[in-house]
Amino acid sequence: MKQCSICGKGSKMAGKRHKLRGNYNPTPQVRKYPNLQKTTDLEGKKIVACTQCIKTLAKKAVN
Questions:
Q1: Which of 1, 3, 36, 56 is exposed most, by the fewest CB atoms within 10 A?
Q2: How many CA atoms lie within 13 A of 31 on its CB side?
Q3: Per-residue pLDDT tens for 11-53?
Q4: Number of domains making up the chain
């Protein structure tokens, strides 16, 4: 399963419900994935992390 190695964010199911003449139209659900990228952490190890965690790591590296 695709998952962030820092925060553990993974995929989730999502779908829309369309109103049609007083009845809800059942539509299939779609799996949504987080934006995962290959990067290195502060110790130099290669990890797969979501973009939010990459932005946070960049802030910690500056300080």
A1: 1
A2: 5
A3: 999 887 777 777 777 778 889 999 999 999 888 999 999 999 9
A4: 1
